[in-house]
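Board notes (copied after class):
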Amino acid sequence: MARVSFQLSVAIASTLQEIIRSGLFGATFILRARCIALAHLGENYSNISSQVGLSAKTISQWVRRFVASLSAFGHVEKEGVKAQLMRSVVDCLRDAPRSGAPKTFGPAQVASIISIACEDPNASNRPVTTWTAREIAKETVLRRIVDTISTSQVQRFLNDVQLRPQDNKGWCFTTEKDQELFNLQAQSVCDAYLDAPRLLAEEDICTVSVDEMTSLQANEKRAPTKRAIPGHCGKEECQYTRHGTICLTGNWDVVRGQFLLPTIEETRNNKDFSLHIKRLIQTDIAKGWVFVVDNLNTHCGEPLVRMVAEHLGISGDGLGEVAKGGVLKDMASRRAFLSDTSHLVRFVYIPKHSSWLNQIEAVFRMINRRVMRCGSFTSKEELMDKLRTFTKYFNETIAKPMKWTFTGRPTEKEAVESPKTWREMWPFRHLKTILQKPEGTSGF
């Protein structure tokens, strides 16, 4: 019987030795680990057989199984988690999966059950928005797909295909009807992000993502929140007293990964936004500015246009009048002026209803999760102080530049699959390409 020659990394070899020496694993696992360790040292199967008491054929089988899993072990080893490597090695020393009892439900029945879970419950006259496993089981019997089936069996079928009907994620889709315009605007945003490091390094132009968090409620819980303790989750009072709302306007430095000079006020209008931008560009952070903003009318209002023109040394007399003519005539003309690439202060507008292209939205989600969600504030002033404190803490401990990989163009994404162990490849054991075996050897 041909002996398989193979090499083991230090981590994998030490994992095998740990299994052999440990008393936590059964005798079967230790025997198989010894076989592999001895084969790695160059022992032939006959000598190993006399030492461990297993047949040469059995030893050959377990060595080949282990060798077939080395790529998977190497992938796990790169993660740097020793316990994960141990679990993977131990799993490969287990017996091969067995077929078990004959299946009660055929493939067509299983597919029909999964299909029901993907339907809208209202189509089955059920006044709910999501299915439960119990309802799917009853609907399956009602449609005479099966005579009877338990809730737990339905849940197992759903788990097998990783289907959870009760789980939903928010999904935002652009309302821009002109696909060519959307592609052009999305491309300009992506180019602004990708070109930001060069602009900062070569021209001292800072790229900033700007937006507002509106209607932040200063709500005070009517009873203190009880913190979580071992065995018990935290308890939060659901009744609260309202103390008003405020607005946070933030700036996210795309290159440096910092939250710059937030404005926290009770109002949000054209003048407020213009003053917010003015306060930022008057600092010595950079000589020029690129602002990525959404299509809100305050982001191209008259006060903003006049402020930018003044900063650039452009006379206000030639700007025209709102609703009459000139740069100030309408939103389109004002936006075109603010987007002029020759200006040291310019704005890049994302497509309609495409907030996912604005990096600062990710920062706002963290503020909502870490400050607002479980917060209790006795006044608007306290909420403002908490937000200012958090933004400072965020910059010092959490903030870092975002890895922007979207280019705005269709891209080919490599399908990189992690290598599989012999047990994971077991359903495909009859395919010759799964494992290259030495001549004269059998399958797994």
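Comment from the instructor: Residues 407-416, 431-443 have pLDDT under 50 and may be disordered. The beta strands are 205-221, 240-253, 258-265, 288-293, 345-349.
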